[in-house]
Write a structure and sequence with these properties.
alpha+beta; 22 strands; zinc
Amino acid sequence: MSKLKVVGEKSLTNSSRVVGLLAQLEKINTDSTEPDTARYVTSKILHLAQSQEKTRREMTTKGSTGMEILLSTLENTKDLQTVLNILSILVELVSSGGGRRASFLVAKGGSQILLQLLMNASKESPPHEELMVQTHSILAKIGPKDKKFGVKARVNGALNVTLNLVKQHFQNYRLVMPCLQLLRVYSTNSVNAVSLGKNGVVELMFKIIGPFSKKNSGLMRVALDTLAALLKSKTNARRAVDRGYVQVLLTIYVDWHRHDNRHRNMLIRKGILQSLKSVTNIKLGRKAFIDANGMKILYNTSQECLAVRTLDPLVNTSSLIMRKCFPKNRLPLPTIKSSFHFQLPVIPVTGPVAQLYSLPPEVDDVLDESDDNEDADFEAEHEVENEDDLDQNFKRFQSRFFRFYTTHLQNDDIETDINKLRPQQVPGRTIEELKMYEHLFPELVDDFQDYELISKEPKPFVIEGKVRGPIVVPTAGEEASGSSRSVKKGAGVKEKVSPKGEEATEDARGSDRTLPQQLGGQNRAAASAHSFSSDIVKALDRITLQNVPSQVSPGVAAGMRKDCGLPLSVLSCTKACPHVATCGSTLFEGRTGQLGKLCCTGVETEDEEDSESSSSVEQASSVEVPDGPTLHDSDLYIEIVKTTKSVPEYSEVAYPDYFGHIPPPFKEPILERPYGVQRTKIAQDIERLIHQNDILDRVAYDLDNPNYATPEDGDILKFNSKFESGNLRKVIQIRKSEYDLILNSDINSNHYHQWFYFEVSGMRPGIAYRFNIINCEKSNSQFNYGMQPLMYSVQEALNARPWWIRVGTDICYYKNHFSRSSVAAGGQKGKSYYTITFTVSFPHKDDVCYFAYHYPYTYSTLQMHLQKLESAHNPQQIYFRKDVLCETLSGNSCPLVTITAMPESNYYEHICQFRNRPYIFLSARVHPGETNASWVMKGTLEYLMSNSPTAQSLRESYIFKIVPMLNPDGVINGNHRCSLSGEDLNRQWHSPHPDLHPTIYHAKGLLQYLAAVKRSPLVYCDYHGHSRKKNVFMYGCSIKETVWHTHDNAASCDVVEDMGYRTLPKILSHIAPAFCMSSCSFVVEKSKESTARVVVWREIGVQRSYTMESTLCGCDQGRYKGLQIGTRELEEMGAKFCVGLLRLKRLTSTLEYNLPSNMFDFENDLIESSCKVTSPTTYVLDEDEPRFLEEVDYSAESNDELEVELVENTGDYEPSAQEEALSDSEVSRAHMP
């Protein structure tokens, strides 16, 4: 203990001595005493600074005057030794304190004083070596901390001083080293770099660097760093190319690669690569690199480095250089516009579609005249050189940076005008115009005198004389199946004529029964799956809307009649899954399947929920799924397809849509990405240039060439996409088992390539086929983070496994060498497409398989499901109407569904209660590629039509108006985002055109009509899919939270707002396993002012106006953490949304119900008076989704013109341990200033 005390006293003494010495030095400056005294005092201070960290800390702490005293002395003294002492003190201070102490020195004016000292010292002849070494050393340390250092150095004339020192003392390595370090700092300023280049600095650097040598490796390393900084200037890069230095750099790199056997000089090798990377930023540099055989040199050296993990920085930097220098290719297409043409009734005056129509036919829209028209600044793109070495420190930095950015930086996309934010109900159309929608609301006027109404007690409905159970509630449980026979319609709720539509046929089954007769017949007995051979699959080359192919033999046709026409819900699985437990309920008719844990979970009823505490409500109870009617009917599907109108006039039907899909009885985890897979794929792409003779370049499928004949070669795969929702434009065989695939643009557009759905046949088992979709446009994708594409095997379906499954290995998403024209890139040149690549091995020979971006859900499937729901419902219990909202541009009907409970009787009181139920307005599938939205909607519809007491209570509480597919034409024709107008319909809600955007015009008209008759919906929700985030979440609208994001705290406090918009998302976070409250946002952005969510909130006055986003990938929280999402979970989300609405009813109408006391506490927790911003949000202008917040892969650099690079560096927000212990409101308050 005494020893510690002595040390403390000694430290205190030293500290006091420093203070005293500094005071004495200050007095010396004032009194102009003899220089010997100043020399003595500074030497004593130097001794203390060298020996005591506390001394160094005290001299640089806030409020200390030590630094000012030293700088003042340095500026005024003429004594050389005093100057050297002070310089040594400053070196000690900044060397041990990191960047903070260097910044402290800059803040005290150190840069200017030291630069002036350098200029004064240079006037001596010869200059004092030690003084120059010390001055350059300290300037090299503090220069990067001074934002104006380059300007100061240039104005003072210091550039030439340093450069001349290097030239004159070329062999004096002790002096040259700090001079080179300072030259590197100078060169970060582009003007300085050009100035130095004119004075021969580039040539000077090439005199210093050279072949492998064990001597002066430190000097070599600094010279290379300086050269790399200098070559970032295009002028210097051109000078280096003109003098042949690209070849020199490659020669030096090969020499160091060959001789550095123990890899002790990796930094030198990387410095050479950094110089090559800088010089290849210009077109001349890239050409010189190609001419010098640089692609082959770097390819070979990088392949030799793969075995040593520590050399990954060399491999990745080499990969970046090669990809940059890879000659830009044009997509092998005649035009980037869609293969299909649809003439619009009205051509927009402005916008992308107008530009598309005004483009002269002779213009090449695939590639510009020069893809490298100017020297593209590749450094402007976000580059992370090591795709796989994202260590924990970097991730922690991302998390901290993300929190800072989202909490403290204002985004220009946030609406800041409170007057614009406030909802202002504007009818938009006169009441006379809106009367055209009266016939779509008969529930408001019908007196039900012609109906035989009975008590509201649920009664089972009868199917052909048999008492059947209720409709299956879509949950994460087993999807039950049964007979697909039709059900007699009940009391007359009929389909009506829309404002623009024609009367739709209630039963789409027509007289043309050719295909159902051949494929279906009347016999529905299940046969053994083993009776099917591969010949059947080969014979079933296509399901067409005409006849079965003539080559099918009578025996095969009989087998098809017996089995293939069978709805797959009645096929049975005879193989047990060893890793799953047996489910007690019947999966297939006549047999019991073995299902995993997810198959037995269901949606709990409200009675069950009320008995549970809010903490345990997330756990779903196991329920036995009752037997009930299936919604899939293959024969009905065919009949509906015949009436579906497509631009290409499709005559074929995809097997998955004909057979149907049931969720597989196993979990599908998010794929773990193998180390180095992306650079391996990139290296294989580079091999195309190096070994061009190995490339087949053979067209295997071409939608643009109507005369194209499918090759008969047995070694080539056969492709097809000529069916509803299909999208595949062209296929080129690159190698024996590798294919490049090109997607079709949205009709009347030249981009939006993401959705794909195509057929593959002619495969051989045991071969790993690589598929590259080469014209993607987004800068990143969940394919980089565990998402897999989907595959459906016909052979597997015939073997009683009719489901889409996630497949593929070696999956990644990266920027490729195919150039996007300025026409396709919004006027920007030099941008590239991106590649989705995956590898698949097929289990069966000559199978027919289908691949899709996400689980397909066609327009015909929706119509089939609606007809089955209508035919199976109990008309005495459920009020169900299927009207036609309008006709689309191509003449397809847009369905409008009304669901509620029938009134208890036709007495006045019961009719009034019926008419006064609040409206819930739901819509989905405005973006065709977001098929998951339709699966969620399917779950909602099935739940609403079920006979469970909870569903009946929900129907008695609300009237549901549902537009399940807002963009039928886009869905039918395989678009990803647009309708046939070539426009994103979710950007047209503000001013929809009745001829170009009929579904939006009339959907908005319905809402305007409700507002006009004072019946605005309680909730509006638009179902969407999200391609870059995980989980399910909501976007809502809040004035207070939007203003808070502008950091106008005073304005935010003045806003009074009902917080009820948070109630429904909060409820869903408690009851829906896939829902994530922390991903929700309630900020209103300027770029979203024409979306459904914002327009319905602002113009219709619906406070609870939402977009519900469902991931295309999977979940990273909750019960489904680590799993890819499937139709089972999506349908469950749709059902949970219904349960949430019933809870919302109970929370907002507490007098109607006798709630347990804990539910009131729950309500108080939901609706708070303070502003809660649970999750920070960033924005992107061309999406309905915020920026992708996972780690960005080095090879998917963002060059998206509308995306903020700053956010590309951010990581997913991860709460700290302290935050995890807080409630949502506490976390929000913790993040608020």
